Each structure stands twice: as structure tokens, then as C-alpha cells.
Amino acid sequence: MVIEYAGIVIRSEDEMLYFWVLFLPSQGIGCYMFRIDDFDVVDATMHGNAARFINHSCEPNCYSRVINVEGRKHIVIFALRKIYRGEELTYDYKFPIEDASNKLSCNCGARRCRRFLN
Q1: Is the pTM of this model over 0.85?
Q2: List of residues 6+ apart from 104 with CB closer than 8 A
């Protein structure tokens, strides 16, 4: 285990309203949300920890898992291999596949980069 992705749990159905009302992009605030399942999202934008800054990579050194602890779901980042001092932590964001018009470019720089996050 490397770190838990911490933040406030919100319902998926409120995710976009929550974002647009509280964290307007014009305010210059980044959005750090991680989907737990079809119903809940962890928002780490204002009340998260350093896990929110872990970047995507097509060849990551970590992976994420949702684990259940005493009836509560937690997102935990685990190491895939030994991670060396000063090495950036990365995991595959595994965004849902979208059609060509909604593709998000990937700039991870990995040898086998897929070129898109979704």
C-alpha cells in the first residue's frame, strides 16, 4: 500500500452539479475526483491528500483498488513494483472508452503510450 485517495464522498448523480456550483473552472481550481463505483465519487479537490496529484501513465508503477473496510469503501493506491526514491508515482486512470470526438490526449511519455486516456 502506498496511499489512500482521501476526500469527500459525494453521490455520482450530484457530481456535475457539485463541480459546477462549488468549483467553477473560472476560479482556477483543479478538479480531483475519483469514481468509487456507479453511485459514489471521492472529491479530493478541497479536502484531499497528496494522492490527488498522482498522474496517469500507460506504463504505471502503481494501481488503484476500491477496498471495503468495516462497510465503508476506500480507494487505495498500491505499488506494482519497487518504487525508487525520487520516482514519480503513476497509475492508469482507466477512463471509460469514448468516441473519437471525446478523446483525451495522453502525454505520459511511456514507451508504449496508448495516446489517449479514454
Answers
A1: no
A2: 95, 98, 116, 117, 118
Distances (CA, A) of 42 to 18, 109, 116: 12, 27, 23
Instruction: Give me the domains of the chain, ranges plus CATH numbers.
Output: 3-102 (2.170.270.10)
Q: Which residues contact 26 (CB under 8 A, 6 or more apart)?
A: none
Grid cell listed for 21: 456550483
For residues 71 and 67, what is the distance between their CA atoms, to the nearest angstrom?
A: 10
Q: What are the pLDDT digits (tens) for 24-47?
A: 555 556 778 898 988 888 989 888
Distances (CA, A) of 25 to 29, 92, 110: 6, 24, 29
Alpha carbon of 34 to those of 11, 93, 95: distances in Å? 12, 9, 10
